[in-house]
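thread: overnight batch results

M.L. [08:02]
morning all. the overnight job finished for the chain we discussed friday. pasting input first so we're all looking at the same thing
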Amino acid sequence: MTELSKEQRVRYSRNIMVDEVGTEGQKRLLASSVFVLGCGALGSIAAAYLAGAGVGRIIVADFDTVDISNLQRQLTFSECDAGTDKAGALARRLREINSGIEVTAVSGLVNADMARELFRGND
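M.L. [08:03]
and the structure it wrote out:
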């Protein structure tokens, strides 16, 4: 695994201070990949925490669009996201949270075959 840059050491310093994470754990997080199926209340906030923690690659998928009624419980979205696809809006937000990670949005229904393919290769 590559060494952490100075910027990464500063950004993730609170993670690194945790004995159970440390520098090696942070490097593993940066090298990891996660697939989040569903960008609603739970999926969106979980993805935001994963992005903040430095998970290096995040794929988010959802078939729905952001509705103004979502905003009271889906805190990663804002009024300007209303009417847009949830996966795309969440991907944009995750990139704002952490520009040093790779984020992919899958908009539309995910069937069983697609889910198997999307889960493959993720941690």
